[in-house]
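Proteins fold reproducibly. Take a sample protein:
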Amino acid sequence: MSIQENMQGEAPRPITVAEHMELGRYNEQRKRTAVNDALGFPTGEQFEADLTAMLGGDAEASGDVIVIALIDCDEFLRVNQEFGHDEGDRVLIDTGRYIRGAVPGDAKVYRIGGDEFGVLFRGAMEREEIFLLLNDMRRDYAVTTPDGTRQTITIGMATAFEDASRCAELIRKADGALYRAKVAGRDRIAMAKEEKMVPKTSHYTRDQLQRLAKLSKREGVGEAILLREALDMLLKKYDI
């Protein structure tokens, strides 16, 4: 019997650990579906697929500018904690609709996941123009919570072929810009910047190094870039 069926039964009983975990998954899925259904935005997987297709197409040869922006709702956890998940959903829906209305019609808007949105620009707009447009969008964002508190958003952006040429690396650069903007105080926008590498001694097994070299050769990407991607995925997994 599923947790949903048990919730509708007449004889209550203590919930098991397994049912508690299933209930958490069920509620998380319900939340994702409620926001996604209301907005109708493509998800993070589609964001990566569309960006990969653009980077592998004729954009660079034709001179088109490709810019990605990652947009994060500041201190969103507080909204859920103080006003409940339904109010959190409402904030996300209002935010998504605001972003869609604030960017050009040919820009693609995505629900990356949680309280993060993505925008994919391709065309004749220069990155400086896009930066100013996004900054205006950030400044004019006026979604509030029931107590009247104005919410804020933080944005990180990166430009294809200038900051990176691969999907994962470009997203990593935009995510790094977003992180810097968050650390600097939130409610601001930051561009990707050239990174200074810091040497760090590490020890890997022979098998790991052989597999890394094989992957690097297969993908045509430097081993250092692949290791940075892996480290970013690890840090994101543990929310650091």
